[in-house]
């Protein structure tokens, strides 16, 4: 097994799914830190068209457009419209299958998700099959409940003991739960950025300043299209 940031000659692609309603600094800065730490060649944001777990306030096309604006000019970053092109709920297992078909042979896929999303992972379609296809990178989030890294490891461990196949064990050197027959589940406790899209939506609705959380081009788009009023 390679260490998280050990280079190899295959393409290392990080997939970052979400509603991005709207995309904010928490998404982009944490993903940038992940890219560096794991030596990912590319980061691909995948806005969900019909997220199975969340309601969205804005159309998928707007969320896609905002994501594109937020990462414009960043080499190695892209935004995929694959979930907008599919009918029905946007299941990650289908998206991963798409990237496996598309990528050059030997592409290594990593899927980024926050701890909040990971702790509901058992509700995702075919999650047991998904962990056999991709390495997960679980992102520590900032906010009012800021557990220590050790406490996060314990939470994740308890969750995995209930919902994952037996055989995972925490490996400090890898910073991951490793398994003899499955991909690692990494914990990335990098920059903790205490912001969520729901908080930004609330602020926008209340006419409060959101400039510190959003890319200026995203703010322009929101104003131009009259979103979140
Ligand atoms: P909402 O407040 O509407 O629930 P959100 O801010 O969590 O939205 P999503 O688009 O749902 O944004 O998030 C996409 C992914 O990014 C999820 O896995 C989520 O856990 C993660 N994420 C969102 N914000 C942060 C953050 N500040 N730090 C780390 N991960 C984050």
- Which molecules are bound in this entry? adenosine-5'-triphosphate
At CATH's second level, what is the architecture? 3-Layer(aba) Sandwich
In total, the number of domains comes to: 1
Instruction: Indicate the low-confidence ranges by residue numbers.
Output: none
Provide a descriptive summary of the structure in words.
The protein has about 230 residues and is of the alpha/beta class. The protein has a single domain, classed as 3-Layer(aba) Sandwich (Rossmann fold), CATH 3.40.50.620. It is about 35% helix and about 15% strand. It has nine helices and eight strands. The protein has helices at about 25-35, 60-70, 80-85, 90-100, 115-120, 125-135, 150-165, 195-205, 215-225; strands at about 10-20, 40-45, 75-80, 110-115, 135-140, 170, 175-180, 185-190. Strands 3-2-1-4-5-8-7-6 form an eight-stranded mixed beta sheet, sandwiched between helices. Strand 2, helix 2 and strand 3 form a beta-alpha-beta unit. Helix 2 packs antiparallel against helix 9 (about 215-225). The longest helix is centred in the last third of the chain and has 15 residues, at about 150-165. The model has no long low-confidence stretch (mean pLDDT about 95).
């Amino acid at each position: 097994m390679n260490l998280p940031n050990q280079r190899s000659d295959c393409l290392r692609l990080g997939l970052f799914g979400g509603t991005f309603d709207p995309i904010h600094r928490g998404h982009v800065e944490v993903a940038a830190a992940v890219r560096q730490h794991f030596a990912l060649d590319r980061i691909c944001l995948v806005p969900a068209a019909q997220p199975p777990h969340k309601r969205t306030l804005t159309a998928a096309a707007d969320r896609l457009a905002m994501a594109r604006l937020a990462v414009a000019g960043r080499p190695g970053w892209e935004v995929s419209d694959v979930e907008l092109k599919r009918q029905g709920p946007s299941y990650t297992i289908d998206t991963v299958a798409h990237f496996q078909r598309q990528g050059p042979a030997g592409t290594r896929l990593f899927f980024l998700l926050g701890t909040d999303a990971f702790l509901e992972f058992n509700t995702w379609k075919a999650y047991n099959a998904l962990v056999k296809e991709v390495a997960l990178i679980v992102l520590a989030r900032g906010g009012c409940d800021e557990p220590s890294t050790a406490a996060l490891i314990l939470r994740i461990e308890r969750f995995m003991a209930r919902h994952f196949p037996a055989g995972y064990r925490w490996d400090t050197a890898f910073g991951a739960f490793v398994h003899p027959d499955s991909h690692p589940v990494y914990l990335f406790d990098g920059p903790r950025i205490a912001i969520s899209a729901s908080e930004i939506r609330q602020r926008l609705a209340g006419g409060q300043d959101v400039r510190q959380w959003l890319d200026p081009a995203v703010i322009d788009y929101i104003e131009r299209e009259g979103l979140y009023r």
